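User: quick one, sequence for these tokens?
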């Protein structure tokens, strides 16, 4: 990316530089440049794929296997047209070995992938007779599809997920040689292919079905909503509403990322889009560069947990849990609020500690003026949400949302141009939106299909329950040892059962974060619900709680070093130390790290769980808010004034007790906070600069 001096670098970031920055940190959008003719062929195919999904969303989805196979066939062909062998922006190839500028091996992969993916829908009428007794051609086609999926995912996302899939395949094949409880009878290659390729337990399972039936449509809606200016409206409204307060640009970053995240599930895209505006403003008023980058990264990762879109995971949940989308969206409300609340508190305390100003009146847009100019762009989102809340299918809601975006686009062009020019512009922008929307779906589709291989191995071998047994046994052993150590105390801090759950949650969280370092959130979630959900289920955790727990920790990986991609993208804009920005972003996102433990022990926070009570909800929610505030103060070394060392320790201890969803623990936490509040309270009457130097 072109380097610019100091803070001007971010302020003069062009659209091309933003695109280059996003590609650098997000391999899923690192598309290859194509020669003109092949570029047009690829664009037409992408447009047709979007049109197919737009039409079927409104007028009916075909039979499941046919729909999934057609979507996967198109996607595999397009992946090999769109991504290079080594995932870099190579110049187009030339010569007899590269027809139309594409190497022969890419053509071979594209054709093989498309044919093998559509083979199962093609033989669907005979499929019932093939399952359990596949023909040699079935095994050959299944093998080809598995190989092309491995290569397609490697190109679109890198090595981690294909390596995990290969390890699971090896486990399925060499089961007799596995040690201890992991041993199983094993399966020959024909049996493996039969299960993964010809049944609905593998590649053509729920994961691919959700991507092709729901996720594609909402990705397309997000792209079209951004095209009509909804994202920019959110940023401008956030500036008008939050910019005037202390540390204004940082609060604008938090609020705008929350709003933009409601229509976009990509952490890195959100970081680059809003960060190009908010990061230079944060630096200009006095925030350190690494802190400015961290604020934007931590805020932008909230997009995947913010209703109504929530990336792909919300739609996977409705299939795996068998509940309406409105249930998932309701359950996500409070935890999403907690994440942004945690970031907002820390940027506020940092601004107070540094005596940073808000934006001046001249630097701020007027909220009413902004909304009056852009209110039309909000209509598609309102239509989408209203359709969802009315009980219609998510894909029908997306259909009306996308249709609304197209109509708004037409109206905008009619206002700006004459009718002829408006018609041309509308067609061009709809074409571009449909092409880009389909492009953004490619990587998540091949990842979901490959995760189907992993899930298929889990169902074939029963390894999920074997791992669950091992983890709970280890956690129970640790809990017993700790309980014996604490037995000298005159009171019981936590029962053995609760400690077993705590240790199990901790191990699950660590695995989620480690896997998330190299695997996208959707794939991480799918693998963890196949492996970790049985673990939590053995301990009595409700399914929706278990799913949200692994989901939140998978998202956390985007701001967890050493592979905190959202933080590194923000650091690229801020010209900051990437690792320092990642560490700070993780600290700012601590609400997302703490809250899953809270709702695991107090499910009422999710509003829709069994045994919900308002008393438990208020205790856990307000206790968590107070705990996040106190821990933020301890990290920031500021509450109402600078903190003494012992006060930071008291606040950290009180935070742990306040977050714990227990009345007695909450009361003890309040008692620990009181002496700090008593000493700090007089500082509220002082001038901020006087407080900072006192």
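Assistant:
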């Amino acid at each position: 990316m072109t380097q610019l001096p100091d803070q001007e670098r971010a302020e003069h970031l062009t659209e091309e530089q933003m695109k280059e920055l996003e590609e650098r940190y997000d391999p899923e959008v690192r598309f290859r440049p194509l020669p003109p003719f092949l570029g047009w062929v690829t664009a037409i195919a992408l447009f047709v794929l979007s049109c197919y999904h737009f039409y079927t969303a409104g007028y009916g989805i075909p039979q499941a296997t046919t729909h999934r196979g057609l979507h996967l066939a198109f996607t595999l062909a397009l992946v090999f047209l769109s991504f290079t062998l080594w995932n870099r922006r190579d110049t187009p190839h030339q010569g007899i070995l590269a027809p139309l500028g594409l190497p022969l091996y890419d053509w071979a992969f594209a054709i093989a992938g498309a044919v093998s993916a559509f083979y199962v829908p093609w033989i669907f009428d005979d499929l019932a007779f093939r399952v359990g007794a596949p023909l040699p051609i079935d095994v050959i086609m299944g093998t080809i599809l598995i190989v092309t999926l491995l290569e397609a995912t490697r190109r679109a996302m890198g090595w981690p997920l294909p390596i995990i899939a290969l390890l699971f395949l090896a486990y399925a094949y060499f089961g007799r040689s596995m040690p201890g409880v992991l041993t199983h009878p094993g399966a020959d290659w024909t049996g493996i292919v039969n299960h993964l390729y010809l049944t609905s337990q593998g590649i053509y399972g729920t994961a691919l079905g959700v991507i092709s039936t729901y996720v594609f449509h909402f990705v397309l809606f997000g792209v079209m909503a951004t095209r009509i200016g909804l994202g920019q409206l959110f940023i401008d409204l956030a500036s008008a509403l939050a910019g005037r307060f202390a540390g204004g640009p940082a609060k604008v970053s938090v609020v705008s990322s929350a709003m933009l995240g409601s229509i976009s599930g990509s952490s890195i895209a959100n970081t680059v889009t809003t960060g190009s505006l908010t990061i230079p403003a944060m630096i200009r008023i006095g925030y350190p560069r690494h802190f400015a980058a961290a604020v934007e990264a931590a805020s932008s990762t909230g997009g995947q947990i913010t209703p109504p879109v929530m990336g792909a995971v919300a739609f996977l949940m409705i299939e795996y849990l068998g509940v309406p989308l409105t249930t998932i969206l309701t359950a996500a409300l409070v935890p999403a609020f907690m994440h942004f609340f945690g970031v907002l508190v820390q940027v506020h305390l940092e601004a107070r500690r540094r005596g940073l100003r808000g934006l001046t009146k001249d630097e701020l847009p007027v909220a009413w003026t902004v909304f009056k100019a852009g209110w039309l762009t909000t209509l598609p989102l309102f239509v989408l949400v209203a359709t969802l809340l009315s009980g219609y299918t998510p894909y029908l809601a997306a259909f009306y949302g996308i249709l609304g975006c197209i109509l708004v686009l037409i109206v905008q062009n009619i206002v700006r141009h004459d009718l002829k020019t408006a018609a041309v512009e509308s067609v061009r922008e709809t074409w571009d939106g449909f092409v880009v929307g389909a492009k953004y779906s490619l990587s998540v589709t091949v990842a979901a299909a490959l995760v189907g291989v992993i899930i298929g191995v889990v169902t074939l071998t029963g390894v999920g329950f074997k791992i669950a047994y091992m983890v709970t046994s280890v956690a129970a052993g640790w809990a017993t040892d700790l309980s014996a150590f604490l037995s000298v105390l005159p009171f019981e801090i936590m029962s053995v059962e609760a400690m077993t759950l705590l240790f199990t949650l901790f191990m699950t969280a660590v695995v989620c974060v480690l896997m998330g370092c190299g695997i996208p959130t959707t794939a991480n979630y799918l693998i963890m619900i196949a492996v970790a959900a049985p673990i939590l289920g053995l301990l009595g955790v409700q399914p929706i709680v278990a799913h949200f727990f692994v989901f939140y920790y998978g998202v956390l990986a985007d701001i967890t070093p050493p592979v905190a991609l959202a933080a590194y993208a923000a650091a690229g804009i801020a010209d900051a130390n990437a690792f320092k920005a990642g560490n700070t972003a993780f600290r700012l996102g601590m609400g997302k790290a703490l809250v899953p433990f809270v709702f695991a022990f107090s499910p009422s926070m999710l509003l829709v769980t069994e045994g919900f009570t308002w008393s438990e909800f208020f205790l856990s929610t307000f206790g968590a808010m107070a705990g996040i505030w106190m821990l933020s103060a301890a990290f920031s070394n500021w509450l109402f004034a600078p903190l003494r060392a012992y006060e930071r320790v008291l606040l950290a201890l009180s935070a742990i007790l306040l977050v714990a969803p227990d009345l007695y623990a909450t009361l003890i936490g309040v008692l620990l906070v009181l002496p700090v509040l008593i000493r700090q309270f007089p500082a509220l009457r002082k001038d901020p600069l006087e407080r900072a130097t006192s």
